[in-house]
Amino acid sequence: MTYTLLIADLHLISGEVDKTNLFVKFCQQQASKVDQLFILGDLFNTWLGDDLSINTYPSVISALKNLSNTTKIFIISGNRDFLLGDEFTQQTGCILLKTPYLLETNNKDYVLIHGDELCTDDEQYQQLKSVLQHPITRFIFLHLPQKIRLKLSGQLRKKSIEAQQYKSHEIMNINQHTADKLMQKYPNADLIHGHTHQQNTHHGEQYTRFVLGDWEVDQGNAIQIDNALNYLEIR
Ligand SMILES: [Mn+2]
Fold first, then answer.
1. Separation of CA 11 and ligand 1 centre (Å)
2. Which CATH code fits 4-234?
3. Ligand 1 centroid to residue 58 C-alpha, Å
4. Backbone dihedral region of 118: left (phi > 0), alpha (psi from -120 to 50 degrees) or beta?
5. Alpha carbon of 44 to ligand 1 centroid (Å)
6. 67-107 pLDDT, tens per residue?
7. How far is the CA of 1 from the centre of ligand 1 (A)?
């Protein structure tokens, strides 16, 4: 049997020691005992390019690298860390996935996404996303001097402001019709996503939608899949 863990929305901030330590401990303990770990986006609260951000998360990078010796690590990038790139995957041994990704297990198949693509009620957000995540924007941004990138992202401001910001911005819900339309393409699968920070299980007629929660400094959550699917509390 294959043992799988899934997590999302850690929103790790460089210098925020407690949550980083919680994640490092999770890598050393629970995650090292399973076959594969899927991180469904926003592991990092900001990622400004591998050249700039790898150095700001040294303990996370080495925890992932060590974990990759025992466990396959698959990452779907989120709206916060969509700039994760080749240098990151080389240094950590993680594998970046394109979404939607179909995870096939013994009993059930699961569609894996970050989740923001389902928040179509927020038209402004979707417009901004299509600009920010466009390959041309990406190229230009990654070629800006590091200082300018830091300035643009607001990272030069206080970390506490950064930590508060994401909460108000990301608490939005998914559009049911958009989710149903996606899942019509996968008639026998269930859906697992994060992004909304609203951990829950929604049983629909056609499929079940499992939502991962975000992580607090002293508590995280995960989904474990073996013979069954269960939520785990991480402390
Ligand atoms: Mn997100």
1. 9
2. 3.60.21.10
3. 22
4. alpha
5. 10
6. 999 999 999 999 999 999 999 999 999 999 999 999 999 88
7. 31
